[in-house]
UniProtKB/TrEMBL annotation:
Designated name of the protein: Cytochrome P450
Cited SUPFAM superfamilies: Cytochrome P450
Species in which this protein is naturally found: Paspalum notatum var. saurae
Binding site for heme: C465
Topological category with respect to the lipid bilayer: Single-pass membrane protein
Family affiliation: Belongs to the cytochrome P450 family.
Length: 522
């Protein structure tokens, strides 16, 4: 019913179509003659809205459009223009060579959920974004800070190994298939990121409560908010029940986060007065929240962040470090299950580097394992957790690859398609870590994209993921230790299926189940 009302409202406004089309035609050509990228014809006023609604698989639609129109395609919804770039060279011209011109973000429809724009991923390109990003990079993701959390990573490694081992033994004792590994991976990543965020090692019930609140919010955003991109003033009325549901998820996050934030606030007050006595062993010296409590926004009268803003930034921090990492880990371990020769070659490198007596693969050890790095890079190339980076917005007219990207347009980049481009990669749909070693087509690949783009799982340019370094550390550390601890085998009758489905990230439609056998030399 709501969709019918939305279309009816659109038809009632058709008299404005002629004016809009005239305005569009006047803006289709830049001063140097560059034109908007081609795209499918649309209806007056509605543009390509009906095409998008009839195509639940946006990636499949874009593949057809790219095959028909070329590597840069434009789509319209009303007067808004969205441009999709599937060519790595044009992506480099847009994101690196054009610099700040494409570093902005489109207006977030989540403002309807009473959020401010003050998060690192969603903020407009400007002083507030620079302040928030600089704080994250310098105060929490700097190598010296990351090193402080090494004991936390070792703790989480033990938690994960114990959980996976117990599940494998229980399944064997009951002659049942083991449970999917993704749940254990997600729980482990939440244990680690909650500790880094709030500075406290929480018990299992508390971690699971935070994880559930985060997952509810992420799935709501992934499945329910796209409708608000078209006529927010109208859709917020037609879909007010959906908005209420989203606000309830946000309130639940705040209920869980605020006591943890207040505890760090109280601790900071105690530290200013005197060193706290009898501090719990589960409390860490540093946390992301500590840095947020110190921020003052100079553009807004040197005010501190509000509790709502801190909660949103904490949610962003947890999202960036848990779901994407757990998703990438599942894909990599699935490939190792399916490709036993690759797994054994990696295990051979681990034994040669660490020997048989060492209890874990240390973080410093991973720096001496080129094949481990190749396995992780190949996993990110073959199965990037996000098939698109967050949309960019053109702050001014930009010409890239001979096409006009008009001011205000939303610009999207097809991450997965670039990593599967058969013109750049041999056997692109196969899992071949050796391609990243000497002589391979991925040798010396620059995942930052500063020199060139061949794959961009973390984005590229000024909006590149701030957590690139720590993400690679976590993936290498946990992959190495999971292979050192267990031999990962396929479950008879429950073979690995690489079919994808989109949740908040692109996950395995049939979650990985693996038969885990403890290494006798571990």
């Amino acid at each position: 019913m709501a969709t019918q009302l939305l279309l009816l409202a659109a038809l009632l406004l058709l008299p404005l179509a002629a004016l809009l089309l005239a305005k569009q035609r006047g803006a289709r050509r830049a001063k140097n003659g560059a034109q908007l990228p081609p795209g499918p014809p649309g209806l007056p006023f509605l543009g390509n809205l009906l095409l998008l609604r009839r195509s639940p698989d946006v990636e499949a639609l874009l593949r057809r459009l790219v095959a028909q129109y070329g590597p840069v395609v434009s789509l319209r919804v009303g007067s808004s223009v969205s441009i999709f770039i599937a060519d790595r060279r044009i992506a480099h011209a847009a994101l690196v060579e054009s610099g700040a011109a494409l570093a902005d973000r489109p207006p977030a429809t989540r403002q309807l959920l009473r959020e401010s724009g003050n998060t690192i991923s969603r903020s407009s390109y400007g002083p507030v974004w620079r302040l928030l990003r600089r704080n994250l990079v310098a105060e929490t993701l700097h190598p010296s800070r990351v090193k402080q959390f090494a004991p936390a990573r070792a703790w989480v490694r033990r938690v994960l190994a114990e959980m996976l081992g117990r599940e494998a033994e229980d399944a064997q004792a009951r002659a049942q298939a083991p449970p999917p590994v993704l749940e254990a991976l997600r729980y482990a990543m939440f244990c680690l990121l909650v500790l880094m965020c709030f500075g406290e090692r929480l018990d299992e019930a508390a971690v699971r409560a935070v994880a559930a609140a985060q997952q509810d919010w992420l799935m709501f955003v992934a499945q329910n908010t796209s409708v608000f991109a078209f006529w927010p003033a109208l859709t917020r009325i037609l879909y007010r029940g959906r908005l209420r549901k989203g606000l309830a998820f946000r309130r639940r996050q705040k209920e869980l986060f605020l006591p943890l934030i207040d505890a760090r606030r109280a601790r900071k007050r105690q530290l200013r007065a005197a060193a706290p006595e009898n501090e719990k062993e589960t409390t860490f010296e540093h946390s992301y929240v500590d840095t947020l409590l110190d921020i003052m926004l100079p553009e807004e009268g040197e005010r501190a962040l509000t509790d709502d803003e801190i909660c949103n930034l904490c949610s962003e921090f947890l999202t960036a470090g848990t779901d994407t990492t757990a998703t990438a880990l599942q894909w990599i371990m699935a490939e190792l299950v399916k490709n036993q020769a690759v797994q054994e070659k990696l295990y051979g490198e681990i034994k040669a580097t660490c020997g048989g007596e060492q209890q874990e693969v240390g973080e410093e050890d991973t720096h001496r394992m080129p094949y481990l790095k190749a396995v992780v890079l190949e996993g990110l190339r073959r199965h990037p957790p996000a098939h698109f980076v967050l949309s960019h917005k053109a702050a001014e007219d930009v010409v890239a690859g001979g096409y006009l990207i008009p001011k205000g347009a939303a610009v999207n980049f097809t991450v997965a398609e670039m990593g599967w481009d058969e013109r750049e990669w041999g056997r692109p749909k196969e899992f071949v870590p050796e391609r990243f070693l000497a002589g391979g087509d991925g040798e010396g690949v620059d995942v930052t994209g500063s020199r060139e783009i061949k794959m961009m799982p973390f984005g590229v340019g000024r909006r590149i993921c701030a957590g690139l370094g720590i993400a690679m550390l976590h993936l290498e550390y946990f992959v190495a230790n999971l292979v050192r601890e267990f031999e990962w085998k396929e479950v008879p009758g429950d073979e690995v299926d690489f079919t994808e489905t989109r949740e908040f990230t692109t996950v395995m439609k049939k979650p990985l189940r693996a038969r885990l056998v403890r290494r006798t030399t571990a």
